[in-house]
Amino acid sequence: MTNYAKKHIFFVDDEPSLSKVVGRTLEQVGAKVSCFTSAADCLEQLRFQTCDLLITDVKMPEMDGLALLTEAKRIMPTLPVLVITGYGNIPMAIKAIKAGALDFIEKPLDRRSFVSAIESVLRRTTLADPFTNRLLTKTEIKVLCLILEGKSNKETAHLLHRSIRTIEDHRSRIMRKLGVDNPINLVKRAAAIGLVELPGYE
Q1: Annotation: CATH topology of 138-192
Q2: How many CA atoms lie within 13 A of 196 on its CB side?
Q3: Where are the beta strands (DSSP E) in the chain?
């Protein structure tokens, strides 16, 4: 995993002993690791730090792992997430995947399979557009909201007192950050992360 030495992994689990072991393991294979014992602490840092992969436990007090997954996706829509739990079952696994998790891993963690799953995720994201997963700026959020309202580039430019070319540039960056290549997928992605509601959309 030495090719991913610059990758930053967030690990969230309310068991300090497990966080310590996992943190040490991931550092040994070349990753930078930030461990958190609560979802709230993780979300706070997610707004200010670069994160290449989020790994979270499901059963945690106050905010569980699936709620964390949902909120993390609002902040970084294309953030890859792995969910781990000692209480795994099929319905929970399906719920995690539908919420955007890339994989569902049961405790106790097997070091080899755990590291293999992380390598697989990071290998895929390394090949992706490096522009994705960056936070949307305030202006980009305004532009996105107007796009979702059905406003044209010309209308958006008029409302925000910008040139049409500037709006086109914002629109292009928004699509890259959200990892989509057409307006339909942009709307679907926005729905998936809770920015817009679509009748019958799941």
Answers
A1: Arc Repressor Mutant, subunit A (1.10.10)
A2: 18
A3: 8-12, 32-36, 53-57, 81-85, 103-106
